[in-house]
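tool=predict chain=A
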Amino acid sequence: SHEHLFQYGKHLYIQQAAVFIEDAIQYRSINHRVDARSLRWYRWYYSRLCQGLGIIIAIILGLAFIEEPSSLTYTSDIRYRPPPWKPPCGLTEGIEIICLCTLTVDVAVKSYLIGWDELRKTRWLIGYVLVIALSVIDWALSLSMQCTETIRVRRILRPFFLLQNSSLMKKTLKCLKRTLPEINSENNKEWEIYFSNLPKALNSLLVLLTTANNPDVMIPAYSRNRGFSIFFIIFSAIGKLTFLIKAYWYIGLWATYSQSVTKYFIQNITVWMTNNILFVYILSYPCFYISFCQEHTVLVLDSHKTVTERNDCLEVINCVFILLYLMEMSLKIFAHGVRGYLSYRSNLYDGLITLCLLFLQIFIFGLYKLPFCRGNSDTQTFVSLWDILRLVNMLIIFRCLRIISDIKLMALVASTLVDIVKNLRAFAGILLVVYYVFAILGMWLFQGAIIPPQQSNSIVKSVIINKSLVCGSYEQLEYWPNNFDDFASSLVLLYDIMLVNNWHVFIDVYSRFTTEWSILYFISWWIISAVMWVNLFMALILENFTYRWDRSNTFTVTDVERTAYQTTVQLIFR
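tool=predict ok
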């Protein structure tokens, strides 16, 4: 009947509108089938149940760690590294073919949903089909050669799956494609002053670059166990966020100085303020700075004392804090009930840390008895009392982080960090792709190129040999764990070069052991990682913080949230 057709058409229009809104929010293309059956398939395909494709992509990318040459060794130091585990032929290939079959089903469903005409116009899907086909062909060749081939072309093609699965990454690459030609088209002759000839160009590059000697700090621990590199990488990543502090200091000092000095003086003092901001901050609080150093000196001296020589006052204070935390948690549970207490994330955070503190304190009592009641001080345990107390102090400090949401400035910084994690996933994904491709290329070009020295049984002889080497060379600095012999060590080496830390040492050693043309590989990686991505990441951090700072000082909190949401929606439909 006409009424039935009218209701059916109305329901279809509502479905189409809902799908188009979802496409806009998720940065997806709206060029797909819009009939009722296709829309049902479309919504089913993009449901949470079926969007487990990221797990398949993570598995196929992670195969590089266990494929030959395997990264499953405790160290990457070529002097001490044991023979790596070799997976049996067909193990990784079996996992890979399952992933490739899943990706084939994915591309078939996508092709049906968008239609044949749209498929021929979509380069990403055409590339998707070609990459899967080439991967299957290379996979078949590997099995026919009984996994003895040295170069697997499909390994360098795998990051394409990650790019193709993210609409935001594809849009980011499109923006870069539009931006880079504009940068290259700049007609600026200033470079001729600094790069008029080869010697002056080399001197200018030497002045431009910096070597923060990050590998020198990491190598002793990294040489013992490759897992220690994770700590240094995470620390460096968190350290980059200190640019937020610089932005906050700059904005605060700018507001203070702008009220008391003239416009001419402001223009001349801006450079001085930005270059000496940390020095000014320390001089403003000399007493706090000196007491901070004295406190850490006392802690360092106290860490070298035995259990019998140590004073128990600090431990008693820790016990008092833990009892207060337990009392607070008990009162909250009594007042709100168990469900009410667990309904707040802050309570879950406090409760988890309090229980950990209680467990550690009971553990201390079990090993070292109660304070002022020491048993046998010569008892050997698998963990020292000093390490346990440091962990307790860390947890107490972590519990204090809950006040961040109650302080406006700290909440602003914390929200900026959360926004960075949410909004920079596309940039991080593309950086992961670049890392993956360059690591595979580095293994192809430089695997096994560096020959380890002969092991010496005499420590004195090894020290003499080390002193006879060229100062600042790869051998003298003992950078042996940094190599391209497996996938994991390749990633760490590329990370060191990205931070511009002694990367000339790596260029020198690979030029000596391979060919001088190897410098092209390292320069390409430096330009893409250090020049493009690191600077872009820093710019986005400062821009995000400055934007939220301006909004928070102009409007109320509700206005800021509403404005940010409206701006985001407008950018989606732009």
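The radius of gyration is 30 Å. The chain has three domains: 52-181, 207-240+421-573, 243-405.
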